[in-house]
Prior knowledge:
6 strands
Amino acid sequence: MTPTHQQLWEWATPKRMRHLWKHIETVKGHRLGCWLWTGPDDDGGYGILSTRIEGKRVNIVVHRLLMILCYGADFPKGMDGHHQVCDNKACCHPMHVMAATPLEHRGKRRSPRSVQGRIISAADRQTQQ
């Protein structure tokens, strides 16, 4: 089951959003300003949130959830989210994710500026400030 926009809006109570933000580390001082998901991830390395909607257990991709909640829009049908700005799968910042076809997504996956999905350590952040 893929939750609808309406279901996600109804799910996003203040209590649940506080819980969600406990799993997001904002990288201050980093030029990309990533929001790193520190909770569980799927087989592809993207952050997921496991919850119940209408009594059914669902896994929600975190960057998709935040894109819908921030912009009120999802990726167009047949399009995936691509981390255009940072190429960091752990990042769930909605401004870093753009719509791309699956073919475009595969072609863009290895950009020269890529951080290859690694978590930026505290030491890295200090050197970037």
